[in-house]
Amino acid sequence: MRLTIIAGSLLLALSSAVMAGQVYKWVDAQGVTHFGAQPPQGQAAQALNTATPPPKPLEAAQVEPATTGDTEQRAIDQKVKKQVAEQEAERQRYCTTLRTNLAQLQNNPRVRVEEDGEMRRLNEEERQERISDTQKKIGDTCN
Asked: How far apart (Å, rounded) are the C-alpha atoms in residues 111 and 129?
């Protein structure tokens, strides 16, 4: 079976080359142009080249839109990366502040806060509530 497939493929490939034989062009006495596989007897005929020309290279104008699209996409990607980096830096600063606040709340039993322009001391229940809230924020944001 494999031999049959190989032989058939080879025959098909070679037959197309044979079938693309020479083509002739000539003009008869009435001025009509004719094409044929054999030249006419007693008349001048021009042999035509039937080979397919290689594809033309893309012109710069055709290549430029793709390059422009790539450039635009790169600019967008770079802008997004910059925004993500800025957001990450802001998140890191926020986490540092939260951790500092948590350390202050845990290490100082007497925490004072400013409310309405006056300083007041947090009682133990308020301090534990703030510690719990800060730990939750750190868990949600910083891990």
From this structure: 13
pLDDT in tens, 24-64: 888 888 888 887 878 888 888 888 777 777 777 766 555 55
40-54, 62-76, 89-103: range with highest mean pLDDT = 89-103
Q: Helices (DSSP H) in the chain: which residue ranges? A: 2-19, 60-107, 124-141
Cβ contacts of 45-50, under 8 Å, gap ≥ 24? 47/22, 47/23, 48/22, 48/23, 48/24, 50/20, 50/22, 50/23
Note the Cα 107 to chain centre separation in Å. 52
- Spell out the domain ranges in the chain: 61-141
Q: Both tokens of residue 27?
A: 């003009």
The structure tokens listed for 11 are 């025959």
